[in-house]
Amino acid sequence: MDSFVEKDLKYCWHPFTQMKDYESLPPILIDSAKGAKLFESNGNYYYDTISSWWCNVHGHNHPKINAAIKEQLKSFSHVMFAGITHKSAIALSEKLVSITPANLRKVFYSDNGSTSVEVAFKMSFQYWQNIGEKDKTKFVSLDAGYHGDTVGAMSVGGISDYNRVFKPLFFESYKVPSPYCYRCPMGKDRRSCDIDCIAPLEEILKNNGKEIAAFILEPLMLGAGGIIIYPKEYLERAAQLAKKHNVHLIADEVATGFGRTGKMFACEHAGVEPDFMCLSKGITSGYLGLAATLTTEKIYEAFYDDYEKMTAFFHGHTYTANALACSAAVASLEIFESENTLEKVGNLTGVLRDGLCRMKELELVGDVRQIGLIGGVELVKDKKSKEPFDLGRRIGYEVYKEGLKRHLFLRPLGNVIYFFPPFCIKKEELQYVLDNTIEIIENLDS
Ligand SMILES: Cc1ncc(COP(=O)(O)O)c(C=O)c1O
Q1: Which of 80, 131, 330, 425 is paired with 367 by a 20 to 30 Å CA distance?
Q2: pLDDT for 328-373, tens place per residue?
Q3: What is the Å distance from ligand 1's center to 238 Cα?
């Protein structure tokens, strides 16, 4: 075993990992990365099919982002963001306000997706306190949603085998069934339903709206819940209901933001203007930790008063608006314009669609789902009955292991294999990824 990997096993504890798995398959030591590929020191490479946990946008080692960070380094790398400001944060804020829905006018920075969600919760909660609506203290979320691993974010996420142990720590929240068409919670068929799964949300908002601060959801795609892509009509109706019942809408675009769904933000597909939008992951194109929570002038105004009224938002993180991260984010947004990135995404979606259509025919594939450059493949034990694989069977892990033999770095979500490649991936590279995944799935035993 490589001596670095030996030291890794001695000192490092990896996220979302049963470390014992590394006894048979140790972590891969990446030496360099370029575009859509990750390289080992011996020249062997892997396609980063999931954009390094969904954050890489323009590909690894992009010269323009490298240059922007180096330029920022010449002056300073980080200063605190209370009592002090800097040009990279100002430029990024102006840019974010100009590309997100028109009602979002203020940007609050933090450093990862979970904290962007915590900020939205706390702002929503305090907004209602500040304006005297003291009973509005609860949250509603989807039962297959995922918003991060901090305790607040877990409280509104789905309960799974991964986080059940923490349940006693969660704050109480209302959960509504997810718009999961393949396994419809209402037993309907998408072709004939009228978004019937919105009814439980409507019921809760109608009956309990007075005590609800906000409804949070991932627009159009429940990512970690299993790449569950749902109709835009659900999002439209949910936004209308939130407005009608005086409840904030928090759009968690941590995964869907920055072009992933074919538009800059998933909310655009439904013309929805949320009260809060949470952004992270792709914001720096996968270079540095940064997050932003955007909100409206109206919400901001409710915090704006003389100090002694104690209405300020007393929340912050040491690395808030880190200058290196902000400079990377500004460069990434410039690349969207100079390289017509959204057009590139559009050109790749057909390749993904064709590959997914072929996968749909395979014996162990129950459902395929796609939006923009995100594709999900749900493996099932029995196609007819939709019987899922037992998680202990680790079918996804088997695909992962086989993928490594074919230069693919896939990282399944349970029984769901998915594709979330950097936008710089070439058509023939994506084709290679899809063709090889098909062969792997074909060779699996149920
Ligand atoms: C929709 C969504 N929200 C929040 C998060 C949490 O982000 P982070 O891992 O940066 O805390 C994730 C991460 O996967 C996510 O997909």
Answers
A1: 425
A2: 999 999 999 999 999 999 999 999 999 999 999 999 999 999 999 9
A3: 21
Ligand 1 contact via 218 beta carbon (within 6 Å): yes
- How far, in Å, is the centroid of ligand 1 from the Cα of 373? 18
Residue 188 parent element (H or E): none
Q: Please say whether the beta carbons of 389 and 381 come within 8 A.
A: yes
Question: For the whole model, what pTM was predicted?
Answer: 0.98
Torsion, CA 326, CA 250, CA 299, CA 279, rounded to 10 = 0
User: Which atom of ligand 1 has the smallest separation from the CA of 289?
Assistant: 10
Whole-number Å distance between alpha carbons of 46 and 173: 41
- Which residues have CB under 8 Å from 3's CB, separation 6+? none
CB of 345 shorter than 6 A to ligand 1: no
Hey, whose CA ends up nearest to atom 3 of ligand 1? 147
Share of the chain above pLDDT 70, in %: 100
Please report the pLDDT score of residue 281 as a whole number: 98
Question: Per-residue confidence at 162, pLDDT binned at 50, 70, 90?
Answer: confident
Pocket test for ligand 1, best of 50, 109, 278, 281 (most atoms within 8 A of CB): 281
Cβ–ligand 1 contact at 396 (below 6 Å): no
**Mean pLDDT within 143-170:** 94
- Give the ligand 1 atom nearest the CA of 223: 16
Is residue 389 classed as helix, strand or coil in its secondary structure? coil
Domains of the chain: 31-58+340-442 (3.90.1150.10), 65-338 (3.40.640.10)
What's the CA-to-centroid distance between 254 and ligand 1, angstroms? 6
Does ligand 1 come within 6 angstroms of the Cβ of 111?
A: no
Ligand 1 within 6 A of 274 CB? no
Judging by DSSP bridges, how do beta strands 104-110 and 174-176 pair with one another? unpaired
Token pair, residue 303, equals: 């915090």
Q: Are 332 and 65 in contact (CB under 8 A)?
A: yes
